[in-house]
Amino acid sequence: MTSSANAASWVRAKLGAYRAQLRFCLRLTVAAVLAFAVSHLFHFPLSGLWSVLTAVVVTQMSVGGSLQATTEYVLGTVGGAVYATLVAVLVPHTTPLELAGVLALTLAPVAFLAVLRPTFRVAPFTAVIVLLVSSELDQGPVASAVYRVLEVAAGGASAILVSLLILPERAHGLGLGAAARALDQLADALPELLAGVARALDSTALRLIHDKIGRAVAEFQEIARHADRERLAYLGSPDPGPLSRTLLRLRHDLVILGRAAREPLPGPFPDRLGPALARVGECASDYLRQCAAALLSDRPPPPLDRMEAALDAYEAEIAAIRREGATRALASNDLERLFALGFALEQLYRDLQDLERCVKDFAPSAAAAPKQPEK
Q1: Domain boundaries along the sequence of the chain
Q2: Which CA distances in Å does 344 have to 194, 208, 350?
Q3: Rounded-to-integer distance, Cα 270 and Cα 264, Å
Q4: What top-level class would CATH report for the domain 171-365?
């Protein structure tokens, strides 16, 4: 009995780790089957192939992602179908050579449009289907275009309906996890970067640190774009824009800190500033981790008291060094790095204050709370 319970707990733990992925698999499967059923109800050609493919393509991990993908796919389909139909009707093409010319005449403009506006990236694909598949199905270009738009609309509607009704996964919830991962990456990197004032840093390791942070912030920004679309379906959802911009600024702060601390300062500065900077790095890192935990557990952000005290201690040490005249012995490039370090730390503190507000606004309780009317 105990072994069975342990095995069941192990299976639940393993499945729990892939909860979002399993929910997505279920939604994708249901959306495809629903699109297939709708296609047969309306007798679409090819057993509803394009409807099912559309449902599979536009069903995303979140509601916002599905809304965005469906909007872009439908717009691209309509654009490609309308233009291909106009060319096919106006330009005769009874021979393979003439059809090749019409194909080129159709694809060149829509391909250029797809480069300029990624929303229309499926337009060339649709144009090819309208021109080439219609003859195989004994359809005219107009009928082929109409069927193509209807099939895509059916597939997109199936995807959105399933995303909204069956175990819906909001981009807001996915964004919480992505933001927490980005904050943890920042927390890991900050003490390491500030240690460069006292000891040499490995340039390769430094580049890897910035690359990991960049990927984590980019992941959240992509989810934030989906969350913007999702706010149409969930009125009152918090705006992810401020948190996205704050994460980007925090990343830039660490880039500046990395440049300022890319190599140890000369003379007594490592011994004098190293402990104070280590304290700043420790407090800022702890604050970032606690903010990540606050996002995931719907707690208020922690106070910034320890960070303020650590910065005050660093500024006091800098003031003491200046009174002693030690900065006059620095070379110009080292003096510039010292000033850049101070500027970056001040900017970091301001961005942490912004992070405090963002954590309050982007928390799950903020998303669930009804929007208060403006006075």
Answers
A1: 20-165, 171-365
A2: 11, 21, 10
A3: 7
A4: mainly alpha
What angle do helix axes 63-90 and 96-116 make, rounded to 10 degrees? 140
Q: What is the pLDDT of residues 68-124, one digit of tens each?
A: 888 888 889 888 888 888 888 888 877 888 888 888 988 999 999 888 988 888 889
pTM for the model stands at 0.70
Nearest to 128 by CA among 149, 153, 115, 110: 110
The number of residues making up the chain comes to 375
- CA distances for 157 relative to 69, 126, 331, angstroms: 11, 18, 66
What letters, b where the CB count within 10 A reaches 16 and e where it falls short, cover 94-127?
Answer: eeeeebeebbeebbeebeebbeeeebbbbbbbbb
- The values of phi and psi at residue 168, to 5°, are -60, 135
What DSSP assignment string belongs to 247-290?
Answer: HHHHHHHHHHHHHHTSSPPSTTHHHHHHHHHHHHHHHHHHHHHH
